[in-house]
Amino acid sequence: MVSGEVDHFALIRPPRVRISGAPGAAIQVEVVVIPNERYPFEITAITVKDGRNVSVETLEPAVSERPSYRIRVTNRSTNAGRYFDVITLHTDSGSQPQLQIGIVGDIKDPP
Question: Where are the domains of the chain?
Fold first, then answer.
């Protein structure tokens, strides 16, 4: 048995991006990434594994005492259906060069 406290590298809110709505609707989700004070890092690049159904852009950081990053994920799918993708945040950290955020899209035609 192993016990102890888990120290997260960064706080990511929400931890997974869930996109739901009608095809062609303007659906956006904002993700906030706050580095742990013990493990400071900067995001050097953001990539999306597939990228056909979403676009990603960085926004001005939220005003706070700690450094943070804001990322806007926008649905680009015009067809009903589900999709999955992964955002990779590339960092300047030697111990954690990449952070991944899962994306789940559920696009449905209105009843």
Answer: 10-107
Q: Which CATH superfamily is domain 10-107 in?
A: Immunoglobulins (2.60.40.10)
Q: Tell me: the pLDDT tens digits for 7-49?
A: 899 999 999 999 999 988 889 999 999 999 999 999 999 999 9
Cite the beta strand spans of the chain per DSSP E. Answer: 10-13, 16-21, 28-35, 43-48, 54-59, 69-75, 81-91, 98-107
* Whole-prediction pTM: 0.88
- Sign of the C-alpha dihedral computed for residues 18, 44, 10 and 88 taken in this order: positive
User: What is the C-alpha radius of gyration for the chain, rounded to an integer number of angstroms?
Assistant: 16
